[in-house]
């Protein structure tokens, strides 16, 4: 038996957008159920995101500590950001985020995993990259603002992140997914088994 998610779209009889924000919006759809009834579903419409698990030659992961107002926490996270331009190549976006948030570049890029963060209430799709062969980026540092102005950077052993996740001490979804996925890869078929950085992404199609 093959376990695999499949694309499917149920009939929508009506749709409206009661709220439009700066980067996301809320949509209300009337969806036909298998028994013929129609139910209303509200969900956040999201452009999509990328995240980068950057691993150095000492098996440490580059992490950031940032305030997240909706959950009233400072969370340890991996570099991440929105796909600001429709159809943007996610690898280019990931490289930009690693530079802007950590002033780091990487020579080796792979797709670690693709996830829907909260599919019951949001259509956000995230591609998590593995980046290796790290070095300091050239040029001036990107000027940060707002929550990022208080951001802390650290390099933490991968094993310590996994322990923190399982202890309930680390909660950022991209960090959790990235750290556990990479651990599985390293204990399994190895990094060379991962998809290339330009692998197709049906959730957010892009031009190479």
Number of structurally distinct domains = 2
Rough outline? globular
Count of extended strands? 11
> What's the end-to-end separation, in Å?
33 Å
CATH topology of the largest domain: Nucleoside Triphosphate Pyrophosphohydrolase
CATH architecture of the largest domain: Alpha-Beta Complex
Low-confidence residue ranges: none
Strand content: 35-45%
Mean pLDDT across residues: 94
Q: Which sequence of SSEs, written as H and E, runs from N to C?
A: EEEEEEEHEEEHHE
**Helical amount among residues, as a percent range?**
10-25%
Give the name of the CATH superfamily of the largest domain: Nucleoside Triphosphate Pyrophosphohydrolase
* CATH class type of the largest domain: Alpha Beta
| Rg, Å, rounded | 18 Å
Topology:
Layout: E1 12-20, E2 25-32, E3 38-45, E4 49-54, E5 60-68, E6 73-77, E7 80-82, H1 90-102, E8 104-116, E9 125-136, E10 152-157, H2 158-166, H3 173-187, E11 195-196
Helix pairs in contact: 2-3
Describe this structure in words.
It is globular, with a radius of gyration of 18 Å. It has three helices and eleven strands, in the order βββββββαβββααβ. It has 208 residues and is α+β, with helices and mostly antiparallel strands. The protein folds into two domains: 12-45, no CATH class; 49-196, Nucleoside Triphosphate Pyrophosphohydrolase (Alpha-Beta Complex). A hairpin with a 4-residue loop joins strand 5 (60-68) and strand 6. The chain has a five-stranded mixed beta sheet, with helices on both faces. A three-stranded antiparallel beta sheet has the order 1-2-3, with no helix packed on it.
């Amino acid at each position: 038996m093959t376990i695999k998610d499949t694309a499917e779209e149920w009939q929508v009889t009506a749709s409206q957008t009661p709220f439009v924000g700066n980067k996301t919006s809320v949509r209300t759809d009337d969806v036909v159920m298998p028994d013929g009834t129609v139910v209303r579903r509200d969900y956040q419409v999201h452009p999509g995101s990328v995240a980068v698990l950057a691993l150095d030659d000492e098996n440490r992961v580059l992490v950031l500590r940032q305030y997240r107002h909706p959950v009233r926490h400072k969370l340890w996270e991996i570099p991440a950001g929105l796909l600001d331009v429709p159809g943007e190549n996610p690898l280019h976006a990931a490289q930009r985020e690693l530079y802007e948030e950590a002033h780091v570049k990487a020579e080796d890029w792979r797709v670690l995993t693709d996830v829907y963060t909260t599919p019951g209430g949001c259509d956000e799709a995230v591609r998590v990259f593995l980046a290796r062969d790290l070095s300091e980026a050239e040029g001036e540092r990107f000027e940060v603002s707002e929550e990022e102005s208080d951001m802390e950077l650290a390099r933490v052993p991968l094993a310590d992140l996994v322990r923190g996740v399982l202890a309930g001490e680390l909660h950022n979804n991209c960090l959790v997914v990235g750290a556990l996925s990479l651990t599985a890869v390293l204990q399994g078929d190895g990094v060379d088994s991962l998809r290339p950085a330009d692998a197709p992404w049906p959730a957010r199609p892009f031009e190479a």
